[in-house]
Amino acid sequence: MKTKKCIDCGNIRSIGYFNKRKTGDGRQDRCSKCPAPASQKNRNRWSDDPISDHGADPDTRAAQQRRHWKYGLKHQDYTALWADQGGRCAICGDPDPGFETLFVDHDHSCCPGQKTCGGCVRGLLCIHCNSALGRFKDSTKNLESAIRYLKGCK
Asked: How confident is residue 53, by pLDDT bands cut at 50, 70 and 90?
């Protein structure tokens, strides 16, 4: 088993506790148990969520934090939304190929950009439907035009 020494706490940990990076040895120098000063604000959003406990698997916890924090969702909120949708995409209905691979969709007219207030989350979408809405600029006019186009091509 590969190990590495954390530059902050000095503990020698399994390589799985260090996030990946493209340079050096391919792993961060700070273990996932040591909060980075710049990201502490985002970690605090998860403070009452048991999944953020330091005992949780670091790769799973990091992926969950990256996916949900910018939408104002806690892990339990995402899980509830996922269950309400039956683990399926809200548009096409395809089943989620793996828990937490559906993307959080939000109303960009409420909160433009990447981050949201959390109140404008519309649902969970597969990568194809999420990309399609983005490419159509969340415009019903564009989507209706695309439908007319598709119907005219038959």
From this structure: very low
